[in-house]
Design a protein that fits this description.
- The protein has 6 helices and 7 strands.
- By secondary structure, it is an alpha/beta fold.
- Strand 5 and strand 6 form a beta hairpin.
- The structure holds zinc ion (ZN).
Length: 223
């Protein structure tokens, strides 16, 4: 989950899950005196946890790009007020550009989905309508260290990176994943082109297409 979309989300320990929290409550380790503690089921506990607390498990993730981080660091050690104002203005313009990109994506998605209203869409043959527009977004998921283990030895061992490239069909809200490890290929522009080529060999609606890569709003990694 991105903190851009959930700015006040708090995260709990990566090793923690809801069941141990629930058990600790049942086992009277919870700091409320037991006579006042109503008995509830795991189902109710989970429901209250999800609805009333802005908490999540795992590492806090941000979509901060390298430029944002460089500007934040420059702000932390800048010399005078003039330089600080210049950096703040640069960061404001940079983030405004990023937000404009996300807004444009939301608008495109709405329009492209509307273009298919009342029309049949099959991905194996060309559509007869000239008005329809498809839209896909694509990006890499965070690299996955493999195997997914947490014991002490893992701190010192070099783990295998597994890459996951996802393409999302915004009309059907359907995801397509391409998974490989670093022993198979890297995660550069050639690999992105190969995944897209394979995807388009099956994905043939014949409509005009809007393509959007989310990381390009703030980054230039795969350009
Ligand atoms: Zn940025």
């Amino acid at each position: 989950m991105s903190q851009i979309f959930c700015p006040r989300l708090l995260t709990l320990d990566t090793q923690l899950t809801l069941s141990p929290l629930f058990r600790s409550r049942q086992e009277k380790r919870f700091p409320i005196p037991s006579p006042k503690k109503p008995k509830i089921s795991l189902y109710t506990y989970r429901d209250i946890f999800n609805r009333e607390f802005n908490l999540s498990f795992g590492l806090p993730r941000t979509d901060m790009c390298a430029r944002c981080e460089a500007l934040d660091m420059a702000l932390m050690c800048c010399g005078g007020e003039d330089e600080m104002n210049r950096l703040l203005e640069e960061r404001r313009r940079h983030q405004e550009n990023g937000e404009n990109g996300y807004e444009s994506k939301r608008r495109d998605k709405k329009l492209t989905q509307q273009s298919w209203n009342g029309k049949t869409r099959t991905l194996r043959e060309n559509s007869t309508s000239k008005d329809v527009i498809d839209m896909i977004t694509f990006d890499f998921q965070q690299n996955l260290p493999t195997p997914h283990l947490h014991h002490n030895d893992m701190f010192c061992l070099r783990q295998l990176w597994t890459f996951n490239f996802g393409i999302h069909d915004c009309i059907n809200e359907q995801g397509y994943m391409f998974l490989w490890s670093e022993t198979t290929a890297k995660r550069g522009s050639s690999e992105v082109a190969s995944c897209l080529h394979k995807f388009f060999s099956k994905f043939r609606s014949g409509a005009r297409l809007v393509v959007c890569c989310c990381s390009l709003f703030n980054q230039k990694k795969t350009r």
